[in-house]
Amino acid sequence: SQQGEEDPQALSIQEGENATMNCSYKTSINNLQWYRQNSGRGLVHLILIRSNEREKHSGRLRVTLDTSKKSSSLLITASRAADTASYFCATDSSYKLIFGSGTRLLVRP
Amino acid sequence: DVKVTQSSRYLVKRTGEKVFLECVQDMDHENMFWYRQDPGLGLRLIYFSYDVKMKEKGDIPEGYSVSREKKERFSLILESASTNQTSMYLCATENGEGWPQHFGDGTRLSIL
Fold first, then answer.
1. Is A96 left (phi over 0), alpha (psi -120 to 50) or beta?
2. Considering only CA atoms, which of B13, B28, B1, B27 is closest in space to residue B76?
3. B102 — contact with chain A (CB < 8 Å)?
4. What are the tens digits of pLDDT across the range A79-109?
5. Which end of chain B is more exposed for a tag (fewer CB within 10 A), N or C?
6. Strands A31-37 and B31-38: what pairing?
7. Does the distance separating the beta carbons of A30 and B42 come in below 8 Å?
8. Cα–Cα distance for residue pair B92/A3, rounded to 1 Å
9. B100 contacts in A (CB within 8 Å)?
């Protein structure tokens, strides 16, 4: 069963715009992570937010976590064509991560 | 940087063959994982290992086995390959629970 579910499934924006992706999960967590996957490649870790944190920044990335709503969002500001990728949230559950099915982001030049 | 190397990027095998997928890491991480990734299904955990010679079943272990004889190497074995095992296989390592996972570039396996 999938713990994290991303929304939307696909997103197309113009370069320079902001991209927001959402993740909902079902059970309590210790932390939530976001990963990026370029086509045909492995996943790359972007950011980890712990359950006692509400917001975290890393460069052009901003992640929020609302444990009362069991949801998280990933904001990419001033998007670039190179941000085109799939983005996954992952939640921890008994020594393993559970990944959602991802959001496919297309940034048009 | 952590380097996770999967032995093949692309592999084509025949139904019934025994298939070995190898994963090697260079960062002395305790935990290693094998996932498969299929369109619309996200990543699904097949097996993981938290120590040499230790293994735990993930969510979809049927038809697979694993071997971890050395800390840096984690092998996934398809005992008798079937067409429904055609998929992208991803290996990952982790320096303990709650830490980020580091992925290899994946092996795209086709079973004919």
1. beta
2. B13
3. yes
4. 999 999 999 999 987 778 889 889 999 999 9
5. N
6. unpaired
7. no
8. 19
9. 33, 45, 48
Which amino acid type is present at position B86?
T
How many inter-chain contacts (A to B, CB under 8 Å) are there? 52
pLDDT category of residue B98 using cuts at 50, 70 and 90 = confident
Which structure tokens are listed for A81?
């064509």
DSSP state of B17: -
Q: What is the pLDDT of residues B46-78, one digit of tens each?
A: 999 999 989 999 999 999 999 999 999 999 999
The rounded distance, in Å, linking the Cα atoms of B90 and B102 is 10
Does A30 reach chain B within 8 Å, measured CB to CB?
Answer: yes
Of A31, A43, A101, the CB nearest to B103: A43
Work out the pLDDT band at B22, boundaries 50, 70, 90: very high
Please answer yes or no on whether B92 and A43 come within 8 Å at the CB atom.
Answer: yes
Q: How far is CA B111 from the centre of its chain?
A: 16
Phi, psi of A83, deg, nearest 5: -80, -10
